[in-house]
Design a protein that fits this description.
The chain is of the alpha/beta class. The protein has 2 domains: about 5-175, Peroxisomal Thiolase, Chain A, domain 1 (3-Layer(aba) Sandwich); about 180-329, Peroxisomal Thiolase, Chain A, domain 1. About 35% of the residues lie in helices and about 25% in strands. The strands form 4 sheets. A 5-stranded mixed β-sheet has the order 1-7-6-4-5, sandwiched between helices. The chain has a 4-stranded mixed β-sheet with strand order 8-13-12-11, sandwiched between helices. Helix 3 packs across helix 4 and helix 8 packs parallel to helix 9 (about 260-270). It is globular. Bound molecules: coenzyme A. Coenzyme A binds near residues 116, 156 and 224.
Length: about 325
C-alpha cells in the first residue's frame, strides 16, 4: 500500500438562520422558564430555519463561505459528505441537492446519519479517502434543521436544539490544520436513548404515528448526560495519549455543544483551562452535527488560534455514538 498522505483544513464556513427562538419564547410554548433552561443547560437562544429553508439551503450558505476561504471553485471539489439527521428528503441524499446548488459537477457524494457525532464521522471518512489517495479534496458538512423533528410540546427536549450548518474543505498535503488523530465508536445497545421511532422501514408514518408524534425526536436526557460526561473525558485523554500529548498541550477544545454542565464537568476533571474551551451553545443551543463546524469557524473568525496550536474536537450522540479528532493548526 502507498504511504498515507497528510490531510489539512483548507477552508471553513458556517451559516445560521436569522430567526431567533429565545428561552422567553419557549416560556410561552411549554411549562419552563429562562432561569431553568439557563442554569440546567447554559442555553439562552437558538436559531430556527425559515419555512422555505431545507437542510441543503443551510449547507449551501456554509459551503460557499468554506470554498471562498479555501480559494477553490465548486468544480474543483471531488467529494461532498453531508452529515445530517434532517436531510431535505429521505431519498436522494442532501449531498445531491447541494451538488446541484453549488454546481460542483465533478464531486461524488453522500450523506452520513450519525446525529451529533456526524460531522466527525464525515471528517473521518473524508480523511481516510484523501489520505489513501482516492480523492484529493473533500467538502464536509454538519447541517441540521432539527426544528422540523422537535416535539414543541415536550419541554424536556424542545429547549435543547437549534438549526444551522458548518462546512470544512479538506485537502491532501495542505500544511495548515493537519489531522493527526481521529477515532470513532458506538454502543448500539443504547439505540433508544435518542431516537425518532417512526418514519423509517420499521414503522412507516401513518395517521396513528402523526397523532402519537412518534415521528418526532425523543430522548432520555439523564442517561445521555451521564454517558456524555464520561465519554467526553475518555475521548480527549485517548487522543492525547495516542499522540504523546498532555492536556496542557491543547490550544483549543471545540466540543459538541451539548450542555454547559457536561462540558464544564468533563473539562474540570481533565484540568483544562476554561479559556481554552470554545462554547457558543448560549446562542445556538445544540445543533447536532452542525455544532462543531459552526463553533470551529467562529474560533477561526475570532482569531483564537495561533499557528501550531493543537485543536481537539470531541462529540457524542444518538447511537449512542462518539468520535474525536486532533488537528495541528
Ligand atoms: C435534558 C437535560 C438538560 C435535563 O437536565 P437535568 O438536570 O438532567 O434535569 P432532569 O431531567 O433531571 O429534570 C429535573 C426536573 O426538571 C423538570 N424539567 C425537565 N425539563 C424542564 C424544562 N424545560 N423546564 C422546567 N423543568 C423541566 C423535570 O420534569 C424534572 O422535574 P421533577 O424533578 O419534578 O421530576 C440534561 O439531562 C441534558 O442536557 N442531557 C443531555 C441532552 C441530550 O441528550 N442531548 C442530545 C444528545 S447530544
Amino acid at each position: 500500500m502507498n504511504q498515507l498522505r497528510t490531510v489539512g483544513v483548507a477552508g471553513t464556513g458556517h451559516y445560521v438562520p436569522e430567526q431567533v427562538l429565545s428561552n422567553h419564547d419557549l416560556e410561552g410554548m411549554v411549562d419552563t422558564s429562562d432561569e431553568w433552561i439557563f442554569t440546567r443547560t447554559g442555553m439562552r437562544e437558538r436559531r430556527i430555519a425559515g419555512k422555505d429553508q431545507a437542510c441543503s439551503d443551510l449547507c449551501y450558505e456554509a459551503a460557499r463561505k468554506a470554498l471562498q476561504d479555501a480559494k477553490m471553485a465548486p468544480e474543483d471539489l471531488q467529494l461532498i459528505v453531508v452529515a445530517t439527521v434532517t436531510p431535505d428528503q429521505l431519498l436522494p441524499s442532501t449531498a445531491a441537492f447541494l451538488q446541484e446548488k453549488l454546481g460542483a459537477w465533478n464531486a461524488g457524494g453522500w450523506d452520513i446519519n450519525n446525529a451529533c457525532t456526524g460531522f466527525l464521522s464525515a471528517l473521518s471518512t473524508a480523511y481516510g479517502m484523501i489520505a489513501s489517495g482516492s480523492v484529493d479534496n473533500a467538502l464536509i458538512l454538519g447541517a441540521e434543521v432539527l426544528s422540523r423533528i422537535i416535539n414543541y410540546q415536550d419541554r424536556a427536549s424542545c429547549i435543547l436544539f437549534g438549526d444551522g450548518a458548518g462546512a470544512m474543505v479538506l485537502k491532501a498535503d495542505h500544511p495548515r490544520g493537519q489531522i493527526i488523530f481521529n477515532t470513532t465508536g458506538m454502543d448500539g445497545s443504547q439505540w433508544d436513548a435518542i431516537q425518532r421511532s417512526a418514519g423509517g422501514s420499521r414503522r412507516p408514518i401513518d395517521h396513528e404515528v402523526l397523532e402519537t408524534k412518534e415521528h418526532l425526536m425523543t430522548l432520555k436526557g439523564n442517561e445521555v448526560f451521564r454517558f456524555a460526561v464520561a465519554k467526553f473525558r475518555s475521548l480527549v485523554t485517548e487522543s492525547l495519549e495516542a499522540t504523546g500529548h498532555t492536556p496542557r498541550d491543547i490550544g483549543m477544545v471545540v466540543p459538541h455543544q451539548v450542555n454547559i454542565r457536561i462540558i464544564d464537568s468533563a473539562m474540570k476533571k481533565l484540568d483544562i483551562d476554561p479559556e481554552r474551551i470554545y462554547v457558543n451553545l448560549d446562542r445556538y443551543g445544540n445543533t447536532s452535527a452542525a455544532s462543531i463546524p459552526i463553533a470551529f469557524d467562529e474560533v477561526r473568525g475570532k482569531g483564537l488560534l495561533n499557528e501550531g496550536d493543537l485543536v481537539s474536537f470531541v462529540a457524542f450522540g444518538a447511537g449512542l455514538s462518539w468520535g474525536s479528532a486532533l488537528l495541528r493548526w
